[in-house]
Structure formats: C-alpha cells, structure tokens
Design goal:
Layout (H helix, E strand, L loop, with lengths): L8 H8 L1 E5 L14 E7 L10 E6 L2 E10 L4 E4 L7 E4 L4 E10 L3 E4 L3 H12 L1 H26 L1
Antiparallel strand pairs: 1-2, 2-7, 3-4, 3-7, 4-5, 5-6, 7-8
Length: 154
C-alpha cells in the first residue's frame, strides 16, 4: 500500500504544473470521449483566458472542463461541447487550468493550439445556437422514446 495521499487537482497543478487524467463525463463530446481519452490540463497563468479555450474550474465539489464562448469584463460564459445550457459568472478565480492537449486512445496527442483543434473550437462555438437546438431535439426524442418503451412494456 502506498503512503501517498490522493492529491486534489489544485494540489497537483501546484506541485506538477499540469494534470494528465482520463476523461469522465460526456459534456465535452466529441472532443473528449468518456474513459477513452486523456486530457492534459496545464496550470493557469496570470493572463486572461480567451474565447474558445477549454478550461477546468471547480463548481462546488465537482471539477468541470468546459469551453469559453464569451469573455466578459469580470467573468466568462462557458458551455460544454455536448451541452446547451450556458454557465454564467465563472471568474478567473474559479478557473484552475486550461486544456492543452487530448490523448486519443493512449496513442495520438492532439494539441489544442493545432490548426485542427482551433478550427474545431471555432466551428463548435460559432454554431452554438444551431448545436444547442439539435441537442434539445435529441433530448426530446430520447424522452419520447423512453416514454414509448414504458407504454409498450405495460
């Protein structure tokens, strides 16, 4: 048994300057696939973040990795790539680090400053209203399907 205690993301970033961890959750699909991709988070610096950055922040006891879609004077508007609800009031003090790379299937590293990753972020954010509408329709269809299954099972 190891004597090492489990470090929080804040402690890891402070000690190591970065976190490499497996993705948990579906909010950043298709960029990050749950339990299949590694995310590389680098400790934040003093600079403000930019639109399209995917940042790690703490919300209560949970850690959340979502993308900035609007930079405001004192905070950011943030949303997951697979989400439709905007999050307001996330400040620089809330943010712990920035996604700098994704490792696909433990093999291929995709740097977030690459042309492909930047193009993806632009398309994903710039077409947010359309994407949010499609996610809403998908959620409604899922509810209808589940309701029909219950009716058929009776």
């Amino acid at each position: 048994m190891s004597d090492r205690k489990c470090l929080s993301y804040e402690e890891l970033l402070e000690q190591e300057g970065k976190i490499v961890d497996i993705n948990k959750g579906r909010s950043m699909l298709p960029l990050l696939r749950e339990t299949r991709d590694l995310m590389v988070i680098t400790k934040k610096g003093d600079e403000r973040f930019k639109k399209y950055d995917a940042v790690l922040y703490k919300c209560g006891e949970r850690y959340v990795l979502h993308r900035i879609i609007k930079v405001r004077e004192n905070d950011y508007v943030i949303v997951g790539d697979n989400c439709r609800r905007l999050e307001y009031g996330i400040t620089d003090d809330d943010i712990l680090g920035i996604l700098t790379a994704v490792v696909r299937n433990g093999k291929r590293e995709i740097k977030m400053d690459s042309f492909t990753a930047r193009a993806y972020a632009h398309l994903w954010c710039d077409f947010f209203p359309i994407r949010a509408a499609l996610i809403f329709v998908r959620e409604c269809l899922g509810k209808i399907r589940r309701h029909l299954k219950k009716l058929i099972a009776k």
